[in-house]
Amino acid sequence: MRNKFWPRVSNYPEVVSKWVGRIGVIGIVVGHVSQFFEWGDKWLFSWLKDNMQWIWLATITAFLIMLWCWISRLNRRFVQGFKDNFTGDLRKNWDFKGEWRFVEKGVLIVAKSHTGGLTKAGAYWENYTLKFKAFIMNKCLGVIVRAQDLNNYYMFQIRKDKIRPHRLVTFPVLEQKSNKKTSDETPDDFIIKYNVGWQLFNDCNVDIDPPLNDWFDVELTVRGESVFLCINNELILQQESFLKIPCGKVGFRNAGSESAKVKNMQVILEA
Predict the structure, then answer these.
(1) What is the homologous superfamily of the domain 82-176+189-269 according to CATH?
(2) What is the DSSP string of the chain?
(3) Where exactly are the structural domains of the chain?
(4) pTM (two decimals)
């Protein structure tokens, strides 16, 4: 078991540069302070004063390395996108409710997840393609895009023979504080509550032929207000002026007895 003191291997360049920078700053401060004391001409202090230029160069180099590591991490998350091979801790990359679990290495089962689950990253993703392989065990797989949170997102329900677009939306409802109705009601007599409900797009449903009885490839692309859904490299659904949520995360949802397997999942971001 890895000691908690040590960082992950991928973080070593950042950690090393951070500590080198700290040591460099300490050396510079000690070198300057030592000039005002007699011990500044002895032992290590004398070396610090004589090598101040090299200490500055080492500190600046460490800072640049740390900056490069930070920019590289941002680039991986916000430019190159997201990938999950479904091994290790599922909670590391996902916020979900329900029975999300690994059935085998690299394969995720989504079941009894009425609310659904979303990637932790991606709140500001705009244009992207969500790619994965899926196998429908029972009824369907709900695929989520442009999710602001678990109460506001678009879901494309993939059944073996049909695709059904949905939108989960939070909307305000004006309610009276009491059941007593009078003729002199004022705004203070009401409160605003928020309900969550589904918007169905039955006129956008499309059939799938032949039915999806085995593993299949999914590519779901969102670009502006347009959405394109390909299954096994064939364009099945295309809608323009459809998406009204400008950006958001991706995820999956299956309610009740619905269940499906997912693997090889990735998000490819576009300009």
Answers:
(1) Exo-inulinase; domain 1 (2.60.120.560)
(2) ---TTSPPGGGHHHHHHHHHHHHHHHHHHHHHHHTTSGGGGSHHHHHHHHTHHHHHHHHHHHHHHHHHHHHHHHHHHHTS-EEE-S-S-GGGTEEEEEEEEEEETTEEEEEEEEEEEEESS-TT--SEEEEEEEEEEESEEEEEEEEEETTEEEEEEEESSEEEEEEEEEEEEEEESSS---TT--GGGEEEEEEEEEEE-GGG-EE-SS---S-EEEEEEEETTEEEEEETTEEEEEESS---S-S-EEEEEEEEEEEEEEEEEEEEE--
(3) 9-78, 82-176+189-269
(4) 0.69
